[in-house]
């Protein structure tokens, strides 16, 4: 091989490694999101959108548990994301009822990747340091 061809091969290999690393990162992200799209694996943009809404919903949950106004309006009825929003909103309501019923903190994390619509979140350590975690 000439030096030019060798450099091209090295560059192609680095790009392949970068691409594989990116795909691995997306797969890892998909595994920690609630399973909302059972028919097919979500695309990269769908994965990022689901992750964004999941993070916003969890942030809203922390604010609600601390009886503060929620910072994000995420219930957009015109998009696919409403499935996740309604699922997590149902879980928020279940958590509120559970907390009122037994006056205990949230249950510990179990398995967020299970194929149900349940979201298990341990927020007890967030409550004492909320101002350090989220801008108020």
UniProtKB/TrEMBL annotation:
Q: Care to name a GO molecular-function term for this sequence?
A: DNA-binding transcription factor activity, RNA polymerase II-specific
Q: What PROSITE patterns does the annotation carry?
A: BHLH
Which species does this protein come from?
Trichonephila clavata
Q: Please name the InterPro entries in this protein's record.
A: bHLH_dom, bHLH_transcription_factors, HLH_DNA-bd_sf
Q: Name all BHLH domain ranges.
A: 6-58
Q: What is this protein called?
A: BHLH domain-containing protein
Q: What sections of the sequence does the record tag as coiled-coil?
A: none
Gene Ontology, cellular component aspect: nucleus
Annotated GO biological processes are: axon development; positive regulation of transcription by RNA polymerase II; sensory organ development
